[in-house]
Amino acid sequence: MQITPSILNADFARLGAEIARIPSADWIHVDVMDNHFVPNLTFGASMVEALARATETPLDAHLMIEDADRHAPAYVEAGCASVTFHVEAAKAPIRLAREIRAKGARASMALKPATPIEPYEDMLAELDMVLLMTVEPGFGGQRFLDLVLPKIRRTRTLLDSYGVQAWLQVDGGVSLETIGRCAEAGADVFVAGSAVYSADDPDAMVNALRDRAAEASSTA
Ligand code: DX5
Ligand code: ZN
Predict the structure, then answer these.
(1) Where are the beta strands (DSSP E) in 112-172?
(2) Does the structure show a pLDDT above 80 at 220?
(3) 164-191, pLDDT tens digit by residue?
(4) Predicted model pTM
(5) What CATH number does residue 213 fall under?
(6) Distance between Cα 184 and ligand 2 center (Å)
(7) 3-state helix, strand, coil in the chain (%, to 5)
(8) Which residue's CA is the closest to the ligand 1 atom numbered 7?
(9) Residue in 7, 142, 209 to alter for ligand 1 test, most ligand atoms within 8 A of Cβ
C-alpha cells in the first residue's frame, strides 16, 4: 500500500518546503496540465526537474497533456521515476510505454472515469502501473466517483488473470472516507491531494491513509 500525495493543492510559491512536510510519502505525485487535455494549467518539465533535485522522494508524474507520445519522454529525463500518460491522449500507447521503460522509468497509463479498461487488456504487460481516475481530471478537491469502483475490481481481476505485476493507482477524491473502498476493490497506490494538504499534520495523514488502506485490503 503506497501513498503518493499530490502537490496540486500545495502552496506553489514554496513547493520545496511543502514536499519536506510529508517525509512519509512513498512518492510525490506531480500533476502536469496543459490547458488543452484538461481545462487547467500547472507546470512543465523544467519545473519538475527542479522538484526532482529538491527531494529524495521519487516523483510520480501524471501527465494530463495532449500529444503524450511527443512530450512524455522529457519527464523521464527530468528525473521522474514513474511517468503516467493518458490513453485518451496517446496515439501509440504501446510504443510510448516501451519508450518510457527504455529510458529507465516505470511506465504507467491513466484512464478517465468513462474510459473502459477492457480494450487495453492485451497490453497490460507493457505497464508498471494503471491509473484509474476517480474524478474527471483537471482539479483537486472534487468528489470521489463511486461509479469507478466496479472498474477498479475488473482491472484487478484482469491484472491477476494475466499474471501482470503492475500496480493499480487511484486518483481523485481519495480521503480517509473513500480510501477503504478503493483498497477493497483492489487498488494499491493512492493519490491524495486535498486530504493531505488540508490536514493539520499532512505527514500524519499520509500514515493514516496508508493504515486505513492496509486495513481495508486485509479484510477484503
Ligand atoms: C486531478 C489530479 C489529482 C488531484 C487530486 O486531476 O490528477 O492528482 O490533485 O486531488 P484530490 O485528492 O483533492 O482529489
Ligand atoms: Zn493526478
Answers:
(1) 129-133, 167-171
(2) no
(3) 999 999 999 999 999 999 999 999 999 9
(4) 0.98
(5) 3.20.20.70
(6) 21
(7) 45, 20, 35
(8) 137
(9) 142
Ligand of minimum distance to the alpha carbon of 6: 1
Q: How far apart are CA 24 and CA 125, in angstroms?
A: 30
Compute the C-alpha angle 105/106/110, nearest 5°. 125
Q: What is the mean pLDDT of residues 99-123?
A: 98
Residue type, 74: A
Q: Which of 105, 134, 137 is nearest to 33 (CA)?
A: 137
Closest ligand 1 atom to residue 138 Cα is 6
What is the mean pLDDT of the segment spanning 139-149? 98
- Catalytic annotation, residues: 31, 171
Any residues with Cβ below 6 Å from ligand 1, and which? 6, 8-9, 29, 31, 62, 135, 137-142, 171-174, 191-195
Tally of structural domains, the chain: 1
Position 76, amino acid: V
Q: Please, how many CA atoms are within 13 Å of residue 80, restricted to the half-sphere of its CB?
A: 29
Measured in degrees and rounded to the nearest 5, phi and psi for residue 171 equal -150, 120
Q: Model confidence at 219, in pLDDT bands (50, 70, 90)?
A: confident
Range of the domain at 111: 2-219
Q: Which atom of ligand 1 lies nearest, measured to the CA of 172?
A: 14
CA of 202 to the centre of ligand 2 (A): 18
